Amino acid sequence: MNEIQLRRLNWPHDRAAIGLLDTSFSTTTIYQLHQTELTMHLALVDLASPFEKHYDLSEDYARLPQHDWVLVAEDQSQVVGLAAVEYQQWNRRAVLEHCYVDRHYRGRGLGRQLLTAAIAAARQLSARCLWLETQTTNPAAIEFYRTVGFRWCGSDWQLYDPFALDPREIALFFSYDLT
């Protein structure tokens, strides 16, 4: 493997290359969120058939250059990763809007490099925490964020339209304390 370069977003030059980023994943396990009146817990369950997902970044193209911080991972002019952070001044929270590693580059430490850089960027923005959203259907991402030090801090059963997404997809929120 050649050395992957991390660099700032070069817009609009990077637009087409970001469009080629393979954000898909497949899993045979997902988390189910169980709730009683005032408690919730996650349970990892096996699926009868694999769950497949592809994150379409085209809807976010217009917003990418507007984020406070965007880092691109590049291998020989091919975009193989992306991380973007937005700072919310009202609550001093940085939000990890995007963190993707091309499917063929996963498992090589690139995600950790992007996330480490995003944490550093959040600190430079004077954020008190770095917050992110993922889904119950992405257990690999959940475990990855937890190994880096993020803690589960909430969920939203109603965030996603069940007619647009798989109803098993429930929003989960994680936070990394920067104080």
Topology:
Blueprint: E1 5-8, H1 15-19, E2 25-35, E3 40-53, E4 69-75, E5 78-88, E6 93-101, H2 110-124, E7 129-135, H3 139-148, E8 151-156, E9 171-177
Parallel strand pairs: 6-7
Antiparallel strand pairs: 1-4, 2-3, 4-5, 5-6, 7-9, 8-9
Domain N-acetyltransferase: 28-179
Keywords: Acyltransferase, Transferase
Protein name: GCN5-related N-acetyltransferase
State the gist of this model.
The chain has 179 residues and is α+β, with helices and mostly antiparallel strands. The protein has helices at 15-19, 110-124, 139-148; strands at 5-8, 25-35, 40-53, 69-75, 78-88, 93-101, 129-135, 151-156, 171-177.
Description:
This protein is α+β, with helices and mostly antiparallel strands. It has a single domain (5-177), classed as Gcn5-related N-acetyltransferase (GNAT) (Aminopeptidase). It has helices at residues 15-19, 110-124, 139-148; strands at 5-8, 25-35, 40-53, 69-75, 78-88, 93-101, 129-135, 151-156, 171-177. The strands form two sheets. Strands 1-4-5-6-7-9-8 form a seven-stranded mixed sheet, covered by helices on one side. Strand 4 and strand 5 form a beta hairpin. The protein is globular, with a radius of gyration of 16 Å. The model has no long low-confidence stretch (mean pLDDT 96). GO terms for molecular function: acyltransferase activity, transferring groups other than amino-acyl groups. Pfam families: Acetyltransf_1.
